Amino acid sequence: MKFLKYVALFAITFAIVIWLGVKDALTPVVREDIRTPIYTLGDGSYQQALAQQKQVLKFGPMFWGQYPGGLAFTDAEQALHYLKQNPQKFSGSSEWGVYQLSGDLERDVDYNGYSGQLHIRHSLLVIKQIPTM
């Protein structure tokens, strides 16, 4: 009986720790006054969901910085260039594309010194796919 109490206590503690690590990432920031758009990369499931008028969330930082947040780019061409230069990172069965996010570059992006790249600071909605031909 004592063992079950410890297991239950561990499970509850574990659930609370996980919840604290993701709760802020579950609410996206949506800017009404975007001066400088943010672009990111997403797989084919993004376009499928957008076509069905579903909300698509690009996650910001989670788990106390262990996940730095989705990649951010200053323009669509930069995102497409990154996609083409790093095919090993974007393998899989679905087509990857460039998407605009609901944030503003100056307010919602940070430079990550560890990765050497820009990452979104908060979770953001994916607004639309950007044609890249």
Keywords:
about 130 residues, alpha+beta, 4 helices, four-stranded antiparallel beta sheet
Structural class: alpha+beta
Which radius of gyration do the C-alpha atoms yield? Answer: 18 Å
Identify the strand order in the major beta sheet. 1-3-6-2
Low-pLDDT ranges: none
Please tell me the total number of domains: 1
Task: Briefly summarize what is shown.
This protein has 133 residues and is of the alpha+beta class. It has four helices and six strands.
SSE topology sketch:
Blueprint: H1 2-22, E1 37-42, H2 44-51, E2 57-58, H3 76-85, E3 97-104, H4 105-108, E4 109-112, E5 117-120, E6 124-130
Antiparallel strand pairs: 1-3, 2-6, 3-6, 4-5
Describe the structure.
With 133 residues, the chain is an alpha+beta fold. The chain has one domain. It contains four helices and six strands. It has a four-stranded antiparallel beta sheet. Strands 4-5 form a two-stranded antiparallel ribbon. The protein is elongated. The N and C termini lie far apart (64 Å). The mean pLDDT is 86.
